[in-house]
Amino acid sequence: MEKKDGEAPVLEFSAKYDKSHAREYFEKHNSGIVRKISNLRDHQVGRKALVLAGNPLSVLDLPCGTGRFWDLLAEEPRRKIYASDYSQDMLNTGLEFRPPEIVSRIEPFRASAFELPVEDNFVETIFCIRLIHHMGAKEDRLRLLQEFHRVCSKSVIISLWVDGNIKGWKRKRLEKRREGRSYQNRFAFSAERIEEEFKEAGFCITGKFDFIPWYSMWRTYVLEKCPLKP
Predict the structure, then answer these.
(1) Nearest to 200 by CA among 158, 141, 151, 159
(2) Read out DSSP for 150-209?
(3) Across residues 18-23, what is the average pLDDT?
(4) Looking at the 3D structure of the chain, how many domains does it have?
(5) What is the DSSP annotation of 82-132?
(6) How crowded is residue 17: how many other Cβ atoms within 10 Å of its Cβ?
(7) Which of these, 202, 190, 211, 196, lies nearest to 229 by C-alpha position?
(8) Cβ atoms within 10 A of the Cβ of 77, count?
(9) What is the CATH number of the domain that holds 57?
(10) What is the distance between the alpha carbons of residues 72 and 217, in angstroms, rounded to a whole number?
């Protein structure tokens, strides 16, 4: 994580998503039966989360990547869909290769998730899949969550890694063998720890969905915006 005083953090892996990497990312989730099934499950979880969030009529997909969830967000015909990513190449790839009837529904803009160029209460719901597990520092997670609290008017749907499952146990074993490695950009959190941070940032937990209960680290939370304590 690189940052100077007063500047928004920059995730170290962000710069790798040039045009070539963006196209690889676009194709990844449809390459092979396992990833196709995983993508279907991600959509199923996302659909349940949107229902629990009250089927919001305005959503910000952040980071949107190459638009993997735009078809899901477009299932509600009245929904206004904004999409933002730090990488303009990721945005461009999604806009170029996703179906035109889906792309026509999207209002894209490039931005840092830590400093969004929008007004307070800009959308009902922020849809944030696979971002916060890249943040090892609590101060960065809280900065992100506080910006989400400012920008959403009702709720946040957010996915991350939690431990206390089979995949989490396997990852801990793997990390022990990597003790000499200086760089790490994916982190699993205890549910108690991350849920406390949600509350600290001004959110109440409406519900949560595990990708595969007791096995997978992926968990999706639906958070309701609550007033910040003075």
Answers:
(1) 141
(2) HHEEEEEEEEEEE-SSHHHHHHHHHHHTTTT-------EE-HHHHHHHHHHTTEEEEEEE
(3) 81
(4) 1
(5) EEEES-HHHHHHHHHHS-HHHHTTEEEEE-BTTB-SS-TT-EEEEEE-S-G
(6) 22
(7) 202
(8) 6
(9) 3.40.50.150
(10) 22
Within a domain: 8: no
Question: Which residues does residue 222 pair with via DSSP β-bridges, in sequence order?
Answer: 157, 207
Give a yes or no: residue 163 inside a domain.
Answer: yes
Helix (H, G, I), strand (E, B) or coil at 47: helix
Alpha-carbon distance of 130 to 153, in angstroms, equals 21
- DSSP class of residue 229 equals P
Q: Which domain does 187 fall in, by range?
A: 14-225
Cβ proximity of 64 and 85 under 8 Å? yes
- Residue 209, φ and ψ in degrees, nearest 5: -135, 125
Q: What is the pLDDT of residues 36-92, one digit of tens each?
A: 999 999 999 999 999 999 999 999 999 999 999 999 999 999 999 999 999 999 999
32: amino acid identity, one letter: G
Residues 6 or more apart whose Cβ sits within 8 Å of residue 127: 46, 50, 59, 60, 61, 62, 69, 73, 157
Cis peptide before 213 (omega within 30 of 0): no
- Provide the mean pLDDT of the chain: 90
100 found inside a domain: yes
CB 63 within 8 A of CB 131: yes
